[in-house]
Specification:
4 copies of one chain form a homotetramer.
Chain A (H helix, E strand, L loop, with lengths): L10 E4 L2 E4 L2 E15 L3 H11 L12 E8 L10 E8 L2 H15 L7 E4 L10 E2 L1 H4 L8 E3 L6 E6 L2 E6 L1 E2 L2 E13 L2 H15 L5 E2 L11 E3 L8 E3 L21 E9 L2 H16 L4 E5 L10 E4 L5
Parallel strand pairs in A: 2-17
Antiparallel strand pairs in A: 1-2, 3-5, 3-6, 3-12, 3-18, 4-5, 7-11, 8-9, 9-10, 12-16, 12-17, 13-16, 14-15
Helix pairs in contact in A: 1-2, 4-5
Chain lengths: 308, 308, 308, 308
C-alpha cells in the first residue's frame, strides 16, 4: 500500500519517535466469525491455525483470516475451551465457498473440535451456510438438532461427532487498517513491530492476517509488467535508495507493516492506537506512518493524529 | 481410508496392545522440499506454518504440506536458522502452481525469510520454477545471482531483499502411510496418537499434513450422495455401532488416524514403526491397525507385522 | 489440604456436575508484584519462568511464585513488552531475602530485562529492597536515577545496563484458595482442570504457583512419621480405596487441585468462580469440591455456593 | 568469566566473523540425569521447567539445571513421552539434598509424572537417593517394586501413583564451557546467540542452565566490595568503555555468553563447535571469543581453534 508523499507532511511525536501526520486508508469487506471449541485450548488453536493458513491477502488468497482471541471454557457454547477466528472476503458468496472447504478440510478433520457461529442477529439473507454444506460427509448418518432457534449438524466421525452450526452470520467489516514501522535495522524494526502486533492482539473484533501479524512485502498498485496488478513498493525498499525516489528516513534500513482487518471502524481504530503506542516505546524506531492511496479509493480513513 | 475386515485377521501384540496383522496402503505422489530460513527459528516456523495451512488432503486442498524439521543455523544455505517443509501433489504442474502462489503469499510476505530448494540432483524436466515466477513482484528491480550452478532471485522488499531460489527439484514420494489408534475414550486415544505423532516428527523425510498431525474424520470411498467421492468411514464411528456394522473393538469409544506422507517407502516405513511403538506404550490404547483398500489401489503396502 | 467429610454435605450442581456445598480455607500471606520487561514478551516470559521455578509451596520452597499476566509494551514503565509476576512468602523478610537472590540469579542474568515494582502506595516500612541489594554486582560502576520519587539502579552488564527498581511494595494477600476437580479418569480430570487453570489465568491479581497451575499431590496435615508435617491425603487417593476411608465419588479415578494465591479476597474469589464454571463445562467431571481444615485454621473462607 | 587479554591473540575467522584464538576454561563438577515422563511431552516439560527454575549458577543457586532433550514415548522406561534433565552441583551430597527437595516440590506435585534415573552403571557409593527420601510422603501407603535390580517407589497421590526410582547415578561432568558472542547491537547479538543456543540444544549430554540458555551478566572474580566474590566483568560492558579498559571490538554494543555444562569433555566440545558455527552464520556478529582465567584454575580447556 503506497503511502502518499510524506515530505509535505508535518510531523507529530510520541516519545522520540516521529509520527507522520497521515492516515491509513481502508475498505469495506464482508466478514464472519467462527468460534472453534475443542477438548483443550491447544487443540482449538491447532484447528484455527490450519483454517487460517494461506489466507494472508485477498489479492491472491481466497480469504484473509486470523485468530481473534481465546475464550475460556466457561464462556463458549459447549462449555469447552475455544478460539474465535475472523474471516474476510470480497463477497458473501466468496466467504461461503471458502469456508465450506476450509472448515471441511481443517476443522472437521481436527481432533475433538466443534464449530459455532460467532455473529449474532444477522438477517437470514446475509447468512452463509457451513454445517449444512458439510453435513453430507456423514453419508446419511448425520443428524440435526435445533435448540434455541439455531440449527446444528452432528456428523459422525471416528472420535464421536463433529458438531457444526448450520448458518453463520456475516457483517460488513473493514480491511486494510495499517501501520508502517520504520527502524534503524532489520531486527530492531521487527521486534518493535512484534510489540505492536502483540498489543493489537489484545483488542477484540480485529485480526492480523499476515504471517505472525506482520508483512514485509509492501506493495504499490500496478507494475511495469502489464499482467501484474501490484508490485513491490520501491519507495519503501531500503536497497533501492540509489535507484528510485525513496520515502524512507535517512538512517532507516528496514520497514515492517501491520495490516489490520476488523469488524468495525472503531475496532480497527482502537487496534491502530494500541499498536502505535506499543511500537513507539521500542528502541530503534525512527518513524511510524501509514499507507493510503490519496484517500480516493477507500471509504475508511484512520488518521494517526487522532491516535496519539 | 476403510481398513479391510479385521475379523478374519490374526492378531499381533506390543505390550498389552493388540496390533492387527494388516497393512497400510499408500500411493505414489509428487513431492518437493522447501528450506525456509529466517532471522530466527521462530520466524522460519511462522512462514512454514502459514505456507502449510489449509493443506491437509489433496482430495480437496491444492496440496498436502507440513513441516519436516528444524535446521540449525550452521547447516542452512545462508547460515541462518531454518525449517524444511515437504509438499505433495498429484502432479508436478500442480506442485508448481500451488507453490508459486503459496510462497508468494506466505513466504515473500513474511519478515526476514529466504527460500531454498531442498531436493538436489533433480533432472531439469522434473524441476518446478518458484523464484523465477515470483520475481516479477520486484517490478524490474529484482536481480539474479548464480553461484555454484544454482540461480537465485533477489527481490527488493521493505526489510531488504527476499532471496528465493529459481528452480526446485521434485521427486516421486509416497502418500497415505497411516496408523489407526483405537482407544477406550476420546482423550486417551488422542493423547496416545499425539505420542505417535511426536515420535514420527523425529524421523527425516516424512511429514504429517493433518492438523496437529492427526485426523479424526476417517473416510471410505464413495457415499450415498452421488456427487461425493468420499464420506465418513461409518464402520469406525463409535456413535454408529447400533446402526451399521462396526470394525471397532468392544470398549472403544474413539479412533484417531495418523496419515504420513514421505519422500520414500523406507522413510514412511520407519515413521510408521516409530509411531506404532510410541502409541503402544500409552495407556488406554486397545488396538492399533491401519487402513487399506484391499491392496488393489495403492502400490505401497506397509505391513504392521514387519514393524514390531 | 484435607477437605472435611463431604458425606454430610448437601450438593449443588452446575450442568450435570455435582458441586459440594463446602468452602476453601485460605490464609493471609505477604505478597509482592514484579514487573519484568524485555525486548520481547518472549524474553520477559523467559526471565519470569526462571524466577518462578522451584517455587510451588512455602511448605518447602522459599516462596510461592507464578506469572500473573503479560503487559503490552504501551503500558509498561519502560515502553517494552512486560510480564507481571506475583510472589508470596510468610514474612516480608522472607520475600526480601528470596527475591534478592532470585532476581540476581534469574533476571539480572537474563538478556535485555529490566525489573520494576508492581505494588504502588506501600508505606516504606513494608517495602523490600531489591535493586539496592543487587547493585553491588556493578562493582562501583552502578548508578542510581530518581525520577518521580522512585529510585532505580542502573547496573552495567554485557548487553548494556540492567535497570532495577530499588524498593518494591508488599501487601497482605491470600494463599491457598483452591478447587478440587474429581474426574472419571486421569486424563479427563487433567484436561478439565487445565480448562479451569486457563480461565483463572485471565483474572488479574492472582497466580497459580504449582506446575502448569495444577497439583496432584494433595496433602493432609501430619503423618505417621513424626518429622513429616504433611503427607498424602489418602482419602483422596483412588488407589487407596480398599485400604483407607475414601472421600471420592464412586467412579472417580483421579482428582486434581488448583491452588490459587492472590492479592485480595475478591481476586481469589473471582478466580475460583471462573475456574469452577470452566471445569463444570468439561466432559468427565464428576464432582467439584474444595479443601479446608474445618474452618478453624484459615481466616478466609470461599464458599462454593456463592460462586454458582 | 574474564577472558584474558585478547589484544595479544592472533585471530581466526569463520566467514567474515573474527574468532579469537583463545580457549574456554571449565571445571569438573558432579552431575546427574533425571528422566521425567508424563502423559504428554508437554506435561513432562512442565515438570522439567519447574524443576530447573532458579538454577542458573552454583555461585548462588543450590544447583545448575536445564532440560537436555525430549524422548519419544517408545524410548522411555514407562513407554510414555519423556524429557531428560541434567543437574550439576559441587558435590554428590549437594546434588542429593537439592534434588530430594526439588523432585518433591516440582515433580511429585506435577500431574501424571514419573521420575527415572538416567545415569546407568554408577557404583553404589556415588549414587544419590531420591525416591527413597520422598517416599515418606506416602504416609505408609507407599510400596516398592524391584524389577531388574532397580528399585522404584510407588507413592499414592490424587491422580494415581507417583512412580520414582530409589537411587540415581552421578558422574563427574564439566561445568563452564562457554562462548562469548560480540555483536553490533543488542538485538543482533541476542538473535545470533539464540541461534547458537538452538544449535547446542540438539547435542546430547549437555545443558544450558541460564535463562533461555543465555547470560548477559558476565562476571569477573572478586570486586571492590570485600564480601562479593564476583562482580560485573567491566571489560565487557559496552557502557563502561570510557571508564575502564575495554576488551570489546570497536563497534560492539552488546555481548552475550552461552554457558554450557555437560557430562563429558567431548560433549561440551561438540556443543561449543555447533554453537560457534551457528553464531558465525548470523548477521551482526563481530567477534566470537571465550572466557578463561589464564588456564590456571580450570582443568578443562576448550580451544576455539580446534572447533573451526
Amino acid at each position: 500500500m503506497p503511502p502518499e508523499q510524506s515530505e509535505s507532511l508535518s510531523s507529530l511525536r510520541i516519545n522520540d519517535v516521529e509520527v507522520v501526520d497521515t492516515f491509513a486508508e481502508a475498505f469495506p469487506i464482508k466478514a464472519t466469525r467462527l468460534v472453534l471449541t475443542a477438548i483443550s485450548e491447544r487443540w482449538a488453536l491447532t484447528a484455527a491455525t490450519e483454517l487460517c493458513g494461506n489466507a494472508t491477502s485477498v489479492i491472491a488468497c481466497d480469504v484473509e483470516a486470523a485468530v481473534e482471541q481465546t475464550i475460556p471454557s466457561g464462556e463458549t457454547p459447549d462449555g469447552r475451551p475455544g478460539v474465535s477466528v475472523l474471516v474476510f472476503a470480497f463477497s458473501i458468496d466468496a466467504l461461503a465457498k471458502s469456508l465450506q472447504s476450509r472448515v471441511g478440510q481443517c476443522v472437521l478433520t481436527c481432533p475433538t473440535t466443534a464449530c459455532f457461529n460467532g455473529i449474532e442477529n444477522c438477517p437470514r439473507e446475509k447468512q452463509i451456510r457451513i454445517g449444512g454444506a458439510i453435513r453430507y460427509f456423514g453419508d446419511g448418518f448425520q443428524k440435526s438438532k435445533k435448540p434455541d432457534h439455531r440449527r446444528f449438524w452432528r456428523i459422525p466421525v471416528m472420535d464421536g461427532e463433529f458438531l457444526c452450526e448450520d448458518y453463520f452470520g456475516t457483517i460488513t467489516g473493514v480491511a486494510g487498517g495499517n501501520l508502517l514501522i520504520c527502524g534503524t535495522n532489520q531486527i530492531s524494526a521487527l521486534v518493535a513491530t512484534e510489540a505492536a502486533a502483540d498489543a493489537i492482539r489484545k483488542v477484540p473484533d480485529v485480526a492480523l492476517p499476515f504471517p505472525g501479524g506482520i508483512v514485509r512485502s509492501g506493495s504499490k498498485v500496478g507494475s511495469r509488467y502489464p499482467k501484474l496488478k501490484a508490485s513491490t513498493n520501491d519507495a519503501y525498499c531500503p536497497t533501492l535508495r540509489s535507484l528510485t525516489p525513496s520515502e524512507l528516513p535517512a538512517d532507516c534500513q528496514a520497514v515492517y507493516e501491520v495490516v489490520i482487518d476488523g469488524l468495525s471502524f472503531d475496532a480497527v481504530n482502537q487496534a491502530m492506537r494500541q499498536g502505535l503506542h506499543a511500537a513507539a516505546g521500542m528502541p530503534g524506531v525512527l518513524r511510524i506512518t501509514a499507507g493510503n492511496y490519496g484517500g480516493k479509493l477507500g471509504k475508511h480513513h484512520f488518521h494517526l493524529r487522532d491516535l496519539l
